[in-house]
Amino acid sequence: IFFRFVKKEKMTDECGHEGRPKRKRVSAWNDEDGEDDRQPSVVSSVPEWSHLTVKKKKMVMKMTDSDSSDEEEEIEVEVDVEDAAQEEVDGLDAVFRTTAKLLNTKDGRLAPHRVDFKMWNNANYESRSSVVINSTKFHPNPATPLLLVASSDQHVKLFKLGLRKNTLEHSLHLKEMQPKKCVWHPDGSKIYVSSGLSPSYIIDTETWKSKLMRTFVDRGAVSKKDKLPTFNISPDGKQLVWMKDNGQAVIISSQTWMCTSKIKAGDKIHDVQFDPENLHTMYMCGGGKVFTWDLRSTAVPIGSFRDEGAVDCTRVAISRSHVAVGSNSGIVNVYSKPKDGVFSDRNPKPLKMYSNLVTEISDLKFNYDGQMLGFSSRFKESAVRLAHMETGTVFQNFPRPAVQGARPTVETFDISPDSSMMAMAMWSGVVKLLTFRHYHKTNVYSMGGRDVAATKKA
User: Fold this and answer.
1) What is the pLDDT of residues 289-300, one digit of tens each?
2) Domains defined for the chain, CATH in brackets
């Protein structure tokens, strides 16, 4: 509002002395529309200027029902106002419901482009590691919210996940080794820990006591000088496979600790995974090739194929219908898995190639239903992606941008058996914990978690 000054009037105090003249200010003009905006008229608690539909209905009623009484007209107007308000509420509900349709589908399929996830408190908040975390694994039973964390300071810790508050349940110090990889027994009764060298540890989860697995070393399966870069356990928990540094695999019975058979792959093997659909089929990768073996006859592989464009395969992941292979160049190729799991074509064409990362793939996993594929590299910051398998695209909002000065290098990650949670072990010694709304069976979004869209802290 603009003001103009008028003639000054002299002011005097009680003693008759002239004081400082006081200027009177008057507005240059009066804005009638502005006054109406400041003091809106209200009809049934609904402002006239905010609901044009209500105003139009009132005008129609006056024109059509001019012969009716005032009382009848007022009743009709009140009904129309309530109907209009209800229509607007229904309209807002429809707008908000459209967001849910984008995030979740009725047939259980995961929506592409953007994944709805929420960050929670760090899983190891009560006992954060000051060194690099080498392995993190969820309990195989989705109803048991436990997360295993193994770090280079010779500690293996077990955390109970409460999302808003994660508590340390157990902590074990291994005097003779630095744990590199941990694997749960499928029934959750044991934890197998390896340092990449023999011997390894086995932890009883009931008593939380550990013992060295010297049996298969003493019986000649491997020597104390052998390097065991990786190992895995079969889905039924009856057999363990240890890979030697020279490309030889040793299959051990989990009950007797006897060596049941040996496999010679010929190349250095970087990873071994079992087929979730076939307990006797396992896949090994190394040297640009992927080998398929049947544990019942380990003389020769039952199949093999070359990963397109790969010099050295570093990781392999198996789902019900796909086989994903990661290489040292950061490329991830996804192939269609045959029904029997054996590739007849030695040079198959990948269904999809992900070239989002440029450094060696260090971790590669499918979720339980095969709709998501996660892959990461520990050789570059923020080198972690989640892919939507149906469309062959990566989610645009994952991962979120890191704050300046942070070192968000993902050493390893794991997805829970029901895909409701994901844990990322960071270079800084923390374990980031997040949940996926599409898979979470409870309304964790009302439990006080931090919204990924609204939070900027890494």
Assistant:
1) 999 988 887 767
2) 117-451 (2.130.10.10)
